[in-house]
Amino acid sequence: MAAFLANLRNTVIAGFVLAALLFVLYWKMQGFDQATFWPFFVRWCHIGSGVMWIGLLWYFNFVSTPTMPKIPAELKPALGRYITPAALFWFRWGAMSTLFFGLILAWQNGYIGPAYTLDASDPGGSFSNPKVIDIGIGMWLGTIMWFNVWFVIWPNQQKALNIADKYPGLAQADKDSAARTAGMFSRINTLLSIPMLFAMVAAAHLY
Ligand code: HEM
Question: What is the pTM for the complete model shown?
């Protein structure tokens, strides 16, 4: 058992096998209904990706950054050279996958346009559908956060940590400035993640 769990790939496959068993349970007990299953499936992928993304965002903000000053100088490079670049891989692709499945979900639900325009063109009266306004705000917050990840945090972290040796000759002052920018936008995303999640969950359960 310990040897099995020591291998992450096996562990993840086992998790998916258990989820497949739940699918069989649903199928046998309830019957397969395309119209409800596929939106559910996309929602599951969306939330799974979101957990990967926001989990790492919160790890950076709640664990990694506040612990940094306590780490002895000789151990600090391990974080910048090995742990943070690996975390950033799952972080940015988690963000991409969350957006991808979120957009499909909005499209499946038939409100991708109305949501992004905050229900500006509702035939029943502009800005009158509270659920669409709510999910629209959540989608804008999530999309802004995705933009921050791909176009601010990631490029600045590449500079700050010289990831993949992309900026070998960068001056220390430029590295520090890039690290500060990445850190500030990571904080902004932590701030936005709280109302974003409220809006996401409220759309399905409060309206
Ligand atoms: C990046 C842009 C995002 C878009 C375009 C988006 C889109 C959506 C849509 C359309 C829904 C369906 C709401 C409904 O049932 O009417 C939803 C639900 C949800 N989203 Fe997002 N989302 C995004 C980011 C995120 C992030 C970062 C998370 C973090 C975990 C997240 C977590 C959730 C959750 C938990 C639900 C509720 C599912 C439920 O209770 O049924 N979303 N999202």
Answer: 0.94
